[in-house]
Amino acid sequence: MMDLNEKNISAAPEGGVLETPKRTLLQENWILFRKNSLAMAGLVIFVLFFLIAVAGVFLTSGKDPIFDPALVRLQEKLRPPLSKPNLETLKPEEIPPFGIYLFGTDDLGRDVFVRMLQGSWVSLTVGFVAVGIAVVIGVFLGGIAGYYGNKRIRLGHLLCPIFLGVGFAGLVSGKTVVGLVLLLLGLGAGTVIGSRGDSRASQRVPVGLSVLFLNLFSVDVLITGLVDIMLCFPSFFLILTVVALLPASIYNIMIIIGLTSWMGATRFVRAEFLSLREQDFVTAARALGLSSRRIIFRHMVPNAMAPVLVSATIGIATAILTEAGLSFLGFGVPPPHATWGNILSNGKNFIFDAPWLTFVPGFAILVVVLAFNLFGEGLRDVLNPKLRERH
Amino acid sequence: MLAFLGRSLIQKIITLFFVSVISFLIIHLAPGEPSQIDPMNPKFTQEVLERFRKEFHLDKPLYVQYLYFYRDLLTGKSVSWKDNRPVLVKIYERFLNSLPLFILGTLITWTLSFPVGIPAAIRRGGVYDRSTTFLAYLLISIPGFFFAYMLIIFVVTRFHVPVIGMETFGVSSKGWHFLMDRVWHLLIPSILGAAGGIAVLSRYVRNQMLEVENQDYVRTARAKGLSADQVHYKHALRNALLPFVTMFGLVLPGLIGGSVIIESIFSWPGMGRMAYEAILSRDYPVILTVNFVSAILVLIGTFISDLLYMVVDPRIRL
């Protein structure tokens, strides 16, 4: 890293122009990343976990799965790991994969190895989908707060959706007249506020309507306020409440974890956007006459992604832990489907007789979460220019 | 100063209002109703159900229910739907049970994090640093319930002491035996609660210390020939401690926060467990009040930390 810079600097006066670096930024980051053995281990485990989960979903799902995770063999219950099945009592299709109970069997004689395979997909998708939702919301809100933060929200901006929403609710609940009037009012407010430009407009509208242009607060205040409100909820308790109230389904869990964890990403993106907004390349892009959308998505978002990427990686670890905790408490994926959390939760009843039912899923969660955390921290070190100089 | 206090107070009240609205909406807009929690119960005839709904204002429109609920809460009259006891009394009882767990956990966290984190920063990159780093990640990554069971197995098989619950049933109520019984019951869940905190805080101590060790005045102190101890503990550490003062305010929300799982494993009759039971039985007043109280704790916590920051760091004028 250091000698590369020195070479570039010393090459400059000789050639008259700066040489282009020999390696791209990505290659440079990769070289730095490889030095961090813990983070590399994290990456390797992550890739392995990904492959296992994908293999797991193909091997254990469908009408006639190759390994059936729900297959009950009562005569073979609570067999310890690596024990051989009793071939005389089993039908040919009941014989476990590789002819051995790799991780033992549970209290119904189901093969823990196959159930772990099935559960790995749940952990993987929960992590990625939840964090995906959080990142999308975070980039969107953070981007708006950072880029349009100074824009004022006027009374009309607030009244329009409120009228529309309440009017729609009125229509649905049967109060047609009130609903219609409110809907019309909302539309009216929307058109007035939407048709005029930003400034000067309030002078040209009639006195009655100028109320709609009353400045309330800025966009930034709205969004940071929203983040503050969300941070007031105790997150695990909130997730638990919502999951318990909604019908049990894996998709609900993913969405709820995503909807309750976007605050970090929003803050990061907002902070990045605030500093990026003042930089020359954004001014240049604006001077070229690019649309705001293009400036935001093509020029600013890629530059703001580094901290989001790090927090997303660590967010995946947190989401996996949260899902495991929910399954452990008995919420989440409905019973016949295995998740690591509910294997452990069932296994705790046999903790002294069959400790593998606790230890196998426990270690699996630990290793995967650890891998994501180490990988995320490695990324942070590589992407942080301040730490980079010190190495 | 006064302006800051006033502004911050107004801001926090507005936030609290929205928190109350949102938590109310979340709970009431979710499908299902508390009157349907036990549809198979033959005692729940249509008539009883109607009376039940009338009793708890469930037949009114949402905004009326909202006003009723927060009026009852603020005047201390709201009762649990499960056992008709005042919610605030219930929470207070459980709060007293959670308090020793919280205090011991916080103490363990704060006393262990500094001795673990500071040497790691001083001997950066050494064996000690790398092993504590790895250990910290291990503690962050381990699922709390799994760790709890490992600890339970270890303690029960090694020391032959019971650890579930607040005390062993039937142990005489005084003397050495009783005391040790309580200590064992308290210790294991506290250690579990503190484990994650130690990991996070010691990492933070290390990073903060590293930050300060790279400052010019530390180099100056070293250059003028001070002993290593004086440089590290007198010049560097004092300045590194600054942000931690503000973190005192932020431990407050931990009173309710992540204790749900640990308290259910250890059958500890604290706030987290009460909240969990309230969720299971759809006891809306308790759920909403716990939410409300914890939001207040978060807001007070950030307020205290803002204030402390202002007191400690004269450069900051809010």
Structural class of chain B: mainly alpha
Return the average pLDDT of chain B rounded to an integer: 83
Q: Could you name the ranges of chain B where pLDDT drops below 50 across 5 or more consecutive residues?
A: none
Question: Which shape of chain B, going by the Cα principal axes?
Answer: globular
CATH class of the domain at 46-63 and 111-151 and 218-388 in chain A reads: Mainly Alpha
CATH topology descriptor of the domain at 46-63 and 111-151 and 218-388 in chain A: MetI-like fold
**Number of helical regions of chain B:** 13
The rounded Rg of chain B comes to: 25 Å
- Put simply, the count of helices of chain A is 16
Number of extended strands of chain B: 0
Fraction in beta strands of chain B: under 5%
Q: In angstroms, what separates the terminal alpha carbons of chain B?
A: 7 Å
| Largest interface in this structure | A-B, 42 and 48 residues
Into which percent range does the helicity of residues of chain A fall? Answer: 55-70%
